Records
---
Amino acid sequence: MDEPLHLGVVGLGRAFMLMLPTLAHHPLVRLVAAADPREEARRRFESDFSRPGSPARSYDDVETLCADDGVEALYIASPHQFHVAHVRLAAAHGKHILVEKPMALTIADCEAMIEAARAGGVHLLVGHSHSFDAPYLKAAELIQSGGFGRARMITAVNHTDFLYRPRRPEELDTAQGGGVVFSQGAHQIDIVRLLGGGLASGVRATIGRFDPARPTEGAYQAFLTFVDGASATLTYSGYGRYDSDEQLGWIGEMGQRRDPESYGAARRALARVSSPEEEAALKNARTYGVAGHAISPPVVAAGHNHFGPIMICCEQADLRPLADGVMIYADESRWLEPLPAPTVPRAEVIDELHAAARKGVAPLHSGAWGMATLEVCLAILHSARTGAEVALRHQVRPAAGPATSGS
């Protein structure tokens, strides 16, 4: 049952680059095929992932990839607006699916994707989001154990330079899925919903548009309530000044050691760009297939992936997920529940996909879970626009017992 899952990839862009160390080194997955419109990316994929007697395949269209009988599951890393079409194609060809967050841009598209997976008899997972990260899964496990009482208040904060990294024009247009709510809020909302038990009931929010040169929301604050009376505050800024990794010992989002002296690097690089075309080209230089990018051997990370400082106030203790475990603050003592250092980054994503495809284990990050997170993203934008609290109707509990990765 531990036979590697034969995986195809839709889209060899930036999302694929971020998942590449996981996909290249996790023992339970084997990359065998890909689809991308860029010939240089396809040729690079074939070179990197061919094995003796088993050449990797690449295609310039998604439907041909979906029809490949040697592919068991697909990682859909295409732009947000194409997710629904690509999930439908994959499900129609009987492929299990891991689709990047956000799952889609409308609830109707989410529902169509869930129905396509049901009709095709395949599992649909949404990710990677940071709620796959071992520290948050461990914190959720501790809460569900009942030893600390119920989670009552959750505080989540993250400050990054997201808005000043190179972007294509549509990534600065909220209507096309741009901005921080869809791309970054999906991470933070997923984490908070996991820790709070999933059943959020309402949202009140504001958004920040502080830079006319980046015409989308670059920040938000949200107050999220749950059906059991718990609450959460979510703060995110992508304006690239204060960096909240400072509160986590300069361990970065991907578990890497950060250099605090690189302050302002994203803004400085962007200041050298004089047109949207130049900026798009700068982003393309960070994608797969471009000269200089290579698959490196696995490295020992400084810690687990994370998404900024988070505090969970339970009835009998406070819990603080960290890059190396979960810190517990009880009445008369405090201690760290440690986690083993990761050997493969984001291994939990593949663990969950493999368990679903090979063993039929219901995934935590299912289509229904992804739709519930998108509902909160949409509610943040609606509340900010109208000033009203938004009631939620599509929320679900986590699948039974998230567990930390053994990989």
---
Amino acid sequence: MIENNLNIRLATIDDVETVFQLIQALADYEKLSHEVTGNIENLEKHLFGNPTYAEAIIAELDDKSVGFALFFTNYSTFLTKPGIYLEDLFVLPEYRRQGIGKALLNYLINLAKKRDFGRVEWSVLNWNQSAIDFYENMGAKVLPDWHICRVII
């Protein structure tokens, strides 16, 4: 654990290029680089424009950006409360197993509590057993009865 040199914070407009680079690193890790068709300009507009559509947090280790989480608000009709949907959580491979992913997820959970939200949820690729194990060790329940549905527009 490297908590003393680790800083987790909300991203600012000055971080947009860094967030986009981390998105590209995530896509490369998942062997999905060909699916990154977005750009920095749209990311900036969606994170910091009016209205905003998403937020991001950055993990910095010794002032180097080594991970991020990108999320947005959703809503639970059963809880009648908003929640957070975690779109991406990523730590550069060379910085894994140091507590950075855990710190990012804990920051997000605490942010949801602070905002009086009802839950934090996300999807995980079924082949990514290390991520599944990580999330389960953090107390998350992988929901086997649910499948993601998507319409590309």
---
Amino acid sequence: MMVSPPADDRPAPGPGAALCTRLFSRQPVFDARLRTWGYAVTFGPDLAPGPDAGVDCTLDSLPDPMPDIAAGVIALADALFGQGCKVLVNFGERSILDEAPYALPAERTVIEVPGCDALPASAAMALQGLRADGFSVALALDEAARAQAAIRATADIVLLDLDGTDPGQARALVEALPRAGALLLARGLDDAARLALARILGADLFQGSLFRSAEAVRARRPTSHEASRFRLLAAIEQPEPDFEALARTLQNDAALSFRLLSYLNSPAFGFTGRISSLQQAMLMLGWKLLKNWLRVAVLTDLAPDRKARQILLLSAQRGKFFELAASGQAPARDDPDEVFLLGLFSLLEPLLGMPMAEVAPHLPLAPGLLDALAGRADNRHALWLRLAAAYEGADWAGVEALAGRLEVAPLVLGVAHYKAMAWAEAVFSGP
């Protein structure tokens, strides 16, 4: 897996930047081999402040989320569709009748239709037209069972939420509604038991937080390769790093050296002369950007399997999200660089399949961060980890509560999350 040099922190250009003000979360959807098939997007409140509000706003003081978020999806199109994956988006009856989905790329848009059992015949005709033009349609399995036949016939994907669903009830739902070639997407897969049930039920697609859970960890110690990577991390995190020693270390690592020099000499950077040495690379890229690139590159080397891409992507996104959000605190309470590392290392257990207790001694982190990562303390660092889980799970009430405790305005969080997602995608955009 290749890692591009990190992008800078300037706001993303284009219409997507406007959606920094709307809370949204995306959750990966996997195929049967647990490769990323696409993303399901969930939108929360619009945090756009009034003329006198500045960024000092709370979710309670803002309007309820729009019942139809078509405009929001359109504004985020560049960010959400940039990697070529399918994206599942809720479109209500009004948007379907107004043909709002046509603003999005048909071949990659899955129109998720909530409340399909109450849609009129006019909506069925509109959905049939959208399908004819290349869009896919997703219907909730329990709702589709009650919907009119014309609506059921539009389903390319049927959705089954296994969170809180009795296995017998789930089986009855699947057996009662012939899918006529539609794919079955199982949601709410937060543990191995639900994943196993989804496979038994014949699911084709899988969605849930299981991919980042620590269920599969086993008692083992770091390999020699992993230990060498942890030593490199320790060298990177020195308060005053020895650049000559670091250059020597990198020169002894042919893979990292080649990747760094290859990317710096790519057309994306536009350097007039060829960069041929690591010392020159350090000078041209700057220590902050080089350090962040090395952090992520070392992490990818710890888990080179492409199946781990989503964990790596989310790790990088969490780190940048924490960094940008902490930079927006007023007054400053948390060190942005410190919480970047907290987010970056927050998924090491599922990434390495190894208990945090075995990993922690090798990490260049302060005791408070290690305690939070290992679940031994309910400190401020633990609040950041809970914020990430709430955001990724679209728990907007939890996000609001944690934003208050961390003293970060929700609007700041919205901006930080959008930019962090764009940054992480840029980092992992290499082949």
---
Amino acid sequence: MRPRWQAGPSTLVLVRHGESLGNQAAAAARASGAEALELRERDADVPLSETGRHQARALGAWLAETGGSDTGGPTVAVASPYRRASDTARLALEGLEVPLEHDERLRERDLGVLDRLTGTGVRARHPQEAERRQHLGKFYYQPPSGESWADVALRVRSLLHDLAEYDGERVWLFTHQAVIMSFRLVLEGLDETRLLELDRQVRIPNASVTTYHRTGHHLGHHLELASFADAAAVDRSSAHVTREAPATARSADAH
């Protein structure tokens, strides 16, 4: 059932973090056929790349110039505590009088024992897990000591319940690809098949925005999708638009 919003944000904007060193390491590992990413930091500490910092600043320049287009800019900002998302928020909000909060429910999906492995690495080092994932499907598969996409959706449902207190506010959330897709699942009442189809079709660009507006009709109040994976702020700048490779070529998941 889709959440109804008799009270809550008037606008909800989901921002994917700028390109990270993890994104770069994943691309390099895919290109070389490596089993694992060359990355020393734990996932929570992976920083933005130079391109990622440029993308975050481009988003900030767009906000300063346009006020966030039809969104009017944020009145509330909440970020994943993971460094790449938190730094994206800090750079994008620089100069704006918007306090930044953090919420662990916006963190990236935990890949457990498969963290830092490419698809090649999972098949080579954990063949039984590769078979189990193939059998269960991406949405319900839970890596050992990690999370499934269904687990992430539970986090999103919990956070949305708490966001109801921000009545009439323009809430911006700085987060990660799997979390943004889980918001689409929950807010639009998507099923597993439609969600995974979207994930195959659309690679959410770094520092892109996905926007919902609250609307009322005879079935109640909902947050309705206005734009998805919009990279216009980065595209209009000198920063490069970056995104993950198609799902068939990606590592265990996005970083």
